[in-house]
Amino acid sequence: MMPHARARCQPDPTARRQIDIVTTRPDVPRTAGFAVVSEHAQQWISRTNSRRIRTRREWMRAVRWMVAAGVRAGANGTTIRVAQDIAGRMGRSKHGHVAYCLDGMVRRLQLSRRAVTLHVAILRELGLLVWVEQGSSRRNALRTRRGADFRIGDGFARTATIYAPVAPRVWDDAMGRRIGGDGYQAYVLGVQGERGRALAVSEAREDQVLIPGQRPAEGDVQEVLVGEGEPVDNQSSCTPSVQLPKPRRTSTVDGGNNYRPRKRAARSEEVQGSRKAGRGQGSTGWSAQRTAWAMSQARFVQLNVWWTQGSCVRQLAFALRPLFEGGWGWEECARELARWAPHMRPRHVASYVTSEVRRRVNQAVLDLPEGLVAPYRQAPADEEGQRHRALYDAWRAYADRRTQETAALRGHVRSLTPRSSVGRRMRVPRGMEDARPENVLLSSGEIQALTAAYPPIRSNEELWAEVEEKAAERLLREEALWAERRRAPGVRL
Length: 493
Prior knowledge:
Blueprint lengths: L50 E2 L3 H14 L7 H11 L10 E2 L2 H8 L3 H13 L3 E5 L7 H6 L15 E6 L1 H6 L2 E4 L6 E5 L1 H15 L54 H16 L10 H17 L8 H7 L1 H5 L4 H11 L8 H14 L26 H17 L1 H10 L20 H4 L3 H10 L6 H28 L6
Antiparallel strand pairs: 1-4, 2-4, 3-4, 5-6
Helix pairs in contact: 1-2, 2-4, 9-10, 9-12, 10-13
């Protein structure tokens, strides 16, 4: 049978699209003591022999080494591209777990669905990916996501497939690492041998991040990276306490206006003289050493309070400054924050801590020295009732004026209203002025005639008893009918 002209029908795998010819290696399933993970049961997080990985750099090193080792046929440059897309999303979870998102990977990588699924399967067989959860069209993700707030009619969304990047043991042995534990919970104890130490030093140099303000050594040009090719963005401050200095604009000898009026110069000198006694404009009074100490305390608070983890340490330290100024340590702060017990993680932890501290201090729930937390702005008490005196006087004058204007109309209406026998005025419906009770109400004879003409009113108990009797009769009739059909010859029920 002659193959078609399409790429997937060609007998030569290198003739297909989306396969790198240079990095394709022969099938060596047991190179360096490694066996391809072909059983699906071994590709789950609970049964895998590979250890967990949380950083994208380390996982990409393992991916490149396993692909270059040639232990799986078909592992090539496209496999590395698929792995890079997965590694780019590892930072969204503290455990490094990644949602599959097949449609998104197809759109971003410009590959076919078959190519993406093939190379993801190759990563699983290489021991680099394991299943945390397999997506299902029978489970509703909205029910799990919304919990008690889920209502019938909110819709249906199938659960997603979740992968966990892992590192096989053969790669750790090749890198000279000592591993403790087994399975997914295994961890690195250290390195062994000269080769392991040399590789660890080279990896540390690759992962080194340049400290802001530190100049690299001559001939050592480093690119500051956060992930794979992501430059550090230091253009925006993390908290109000951190403000980047703006470039100073001064006039040069080439041009510009360097004239300053005497009034402004004298005023600036007075302001500078008054500021010498106090602190500078925009300063919070905290030194750099004290700010660093607060950040170290905030880190311990994050380790002990679950809903503060993942937030910015600078912002959390700035929000906890009233507690630090009150003489609290990280133990007291962590105990107080754990006592709040929010139901879910706040979207902005520092803002929540700031508002909650202010609320508790103003409600006398949290005891802190005065002046550390700004009080709520409250209107002064109006004990003499003078705050709305003008409004009350205006309404009183308006009510008096309306009473005088409608006095004649109210008198005319009162004169037309008939009086009752008691002396009070009685309101009569329009058109019923000549009506009398004997002309309106029914006589006893008329009531007896109506009662004889119409059936008597039955109680609810009588009606329910009649309904139950009719239902019992209907059931008896149906049972007799079925019995006759069973006795009839040639009838099979």
